[in-house]
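User: Structure please.
Assistant: Input sequence and predicted structure:
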Amino acid sequence: MKKILIISMLVFIISSIHVNAVEPTSQDNYEGIDVSAWQGYIDFEKVKNAGIDIVYIEATIGKEYIDPYFELDYENAKLNGLKVGVYHYLTARSITEAKQEARFFASSISGKNIDCKLAMDFEDFGDLSNNDVNDISIAFLEELENLTGKETIIYSDLYNSQNVFELPKKYPLWIAYYGPNMNLQDFTCNWKTWEGRQYTDIGNIQGIQGYIDRDIFTKEILLNDNSEIKKVTSEFIETNPSDRIEYIVKYGDTLWQIANDYNTSIAEIANLNMIGNPNLIYAGQRLTIITNTNYEKIAGVGKSFYTVIQGDTLYNIAIKFNTTVENIVQINQIKNPNLIYIGQRLRI
């Protein structure tokens, strides 16, 4: 009787663990990364040789911003035999804006052969209610699928997948979770499985300067049809293109002032010119600058990143970026606000 009781208890425990796990859709896994202009120039030959199979590339943000590295990253990734996915950072505050952004995203990837499901990255909700967030998400995803004929996927962190998103099950999950348990055992959310898991934002890969987001993807993230995306036009594409110039640093210049003068960002200039410490530039230094990138509009939706340097505290970082310690702690899932380290990459 005792043996039967013990066996029954074990079966119950194992079953409970299985039920409370957010599991991969299958065990056929691909090593992946996701990239944007923050990574600067990427040597995709080295990335491929390092064992990466899939790269998700930021294509667009909002209704008018195209990542300045999108075309280059797409061409070089394809040239080196990587499977390519693309994602859009959603900023909509209404169903109308969601449809506008879907059309803009679709028009920006027209004519390309995308291998993976088209991803929606919706993180900054402002004052939207949960119902608003879900209505806007569905409007974006439905419009995108109608325009492209391709399947879609939603990128979300664990908290929002548990507490905010409640979407039809036809939209799979690419989850950001940096904890130790690859299969998310002991967690539940509004999905039972994931097709992608971003498991760190401080990964290192040959061919990429600095930290990189690392991912695991299952085979289900691949599109059933990766034929060329049909032509989609958009009235929301601005005709003011980014320009590449060369700037010679003058005495007294700061990257902040240069970025402000040319409507770009400190991170953009630092990445383009491989500047390790943005506070150290010198008179006579030649800088490549991509102008008119509408960075102020991007910064307003929470897509800034900051790399911690010696002497930093969360308080002075918060002051620098006009935010709060509480916001930085929540976004970056920092357990102890008094413990940050040099080289740590923070979302702001």
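Residues 1-19, 236-241, 294-303 have pLDDT under 50 and may be disordered.
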